Amino acid sequence: MKLTWLGHSCFMLEHDDYKIVMDPYKDVPGYPPLNVKANGVYCSHAHADHNATELVKRRKARKNPFNVRTVNTFHDDKEGAERGENTIHIFSANDITVAHMGDLGHHLTLEQIQEIGSLTVMLVPVGGYYTIDAMGAKSACMALRPRCVIPMHYRHPPCGFPVLAELDSFLKLWPVASIHRLHGNSLELTKDLAPGVYVPEFVEATATDET
Known about the structure:
There is one protein chain. This protein is mostly beta strands. It has one domain: 4-Layer Sandwich (Metallo-beta-lactamase, Chain A), CATH 3.60.15. The chain has three helices and 14 strands. A hairpin with a 2-residue loop joins strand 8 and strand 9.
């Protein structure tokens, strides 16, 4: 299974020649327009920086090899009164489970933690303002205890909304030895992947395949 960061909160997950795009964005400062193909698209909520499905070109129909579950949460800490609902998507295949937390805006309840369950990889917003901040993200990680954590939804100049915190505010909460900086934007997911926080580089996506 392969995971690729496309910028902001957008990722591609690939398995058995099936490609999923999560939370495609548009109009996020500094990021170029998305140029990507996928078999399926999943969005955590209807804001344009997470729901630009029209920018994802569709591949030929194939059987989805992933088991997909959802957990309902909120985009704020007032039960959605300010920014609405947020959906966590959980994808599983070959004993690997990946959760995209979307724009989670509050501490998880015990019921939500139990519903999410055991995770191999957790994609978590860390930039604050619109979502949980660095401390809130660390708290969510401690509650769910995924094997690997990948931060998203932060500012890395010149990319990202100016009100978002930069990544260092999250990374400084972790032991230095647990942080893995990738050379590139992709990570092969295996059951024996070393635990820790993985930080992909931003690489502009190019839609090259024709199927």
